[in-house]
TrEMBL record:
Gene3D superfamilies: 3.40.50.980. It holds the Pfam family AMP-binding. The lineage of its organism: Bacteria, Bacillati, Actinomycetota, Actinomycetes, Micromonosporales. It comes from the Bacteria. This is AMP-dependent synthetase/ligase domain-containing protein. Residues 170-210 are annotated as: Disordered. InterPro entries: AMP-dep_synth/lig_dom (IPR000873), ATP-dep_AMP-bd_enzyme (IPR050237). It comes from Phytohabitans suffuscus. Residues 37-147 form the AMP-dependent synthetase/ligase domain.
Amino acid sequence: MTAVTEDARGEARAQREAAYVEAGLWDDERLGWLAYRVAREFPDREFLCIDDLRLTYGEFTSWATAIAADLVARGVRRGDRVLVQLPNRVEALLAQVAAFRIGAVSVPVVPIYREHEMSHIVADCRPVAVIAGEDTATRQPCAEFDRHLAGAGLDGTVRYVVGEASVPGWAPFPRRPDGPQDDTGLPNPSNRRRARSSCTRRAPPRRRRA
């Protein structure tokens, strides 16, 4: 049996990508640019509303830019994994967009996963940065992550805590900036095409069986 070389794999991948583009399934827009493109066109249009918090597209991307800049300043680079375990709150979405903006890999994890699952996830994905919530009545996420990261030999991992608490070894999640933030100095997003959802395209009509 002939071994498949890396060159052959690369050629096959390039052919598949070209076929997706020709079929209109992929385009050249990168995930890290999506929110920013809309913000340039409609900066003052409301983007989201969560409880009493309302953000326009411009305000949201400015906040994401501040987070992205902080990640870069702390050593996070393109291709690095940023693990996020938060409930449904704006910081979870901001962290994902910030990671996309600098070409990092967002690793969102549902909050119901506890120590058993998280120990495997941390060891497998080996995150360069972790974003977690503050302590609750039933859980201490930061302490749990400290144990998982130490067990995986990842003591140098960047750590952010979302909330009002001050946790030793954990940086506070970047606050909402007072004004617009310039993202021109940030690294370019990864060269990953955005796959259009095929379910949004009209499917061909089914044929009835005779």
